[in-house]
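Support reply, case 0932

Customer input (verbatim):
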Amino acid sequence: LPPGGCRHRCGLSGPGALRLVRPDLDVTLLDSTRKKTNFLKETIQALGLDGVKALHGRAEEIGRDALHRDHYDLALARAVSSLPVLAELCLPLVKKGGLFIAMKGEADESQEASKAIHSLKGEVEDRILYHLPGLDQARSLILIRKMAATPGRFPRRMAQIRKSPL
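Our regenerated output:
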């Protein structure tokens, strides 16, 4: 994994735990719920984690902010939406040559999302199937490499993304 990463919709799950096993990483945890980001900030401080910050905001807004757009080596997102929606929210955050990893279920969404991914200047690099202990259903990681800067019109507003997914 590259040293600079952003985690979208981190919630109270364990994306920050990545930093515990990889102390060389700088990690930004992004969530739109202030209560969650406040909890994460308190936890980061209590654990004395340098190189980890919690950022309150919506990905579609943060992705237009010059401080965060094309900034991260890696973006990691849980399976909270379809792959085209996740790609539109996360790829603008990733710098050229960086990687977006979508945590998804067993079904392969990469074919139906290919138009969206290419519009956002990404390319599916790999799909890794895995099983979690105690769960029958397989999960997958979809690795998308950012090939060029995402066009300025992306990400769109969430209402537009939902109404007309790429």
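We compared this against your earlier run and they match. Two observations from our side: The chain has one domain: 4-163. The longest strand covers residues 94-105. Please reopen the case if you see a mismatch on your end.
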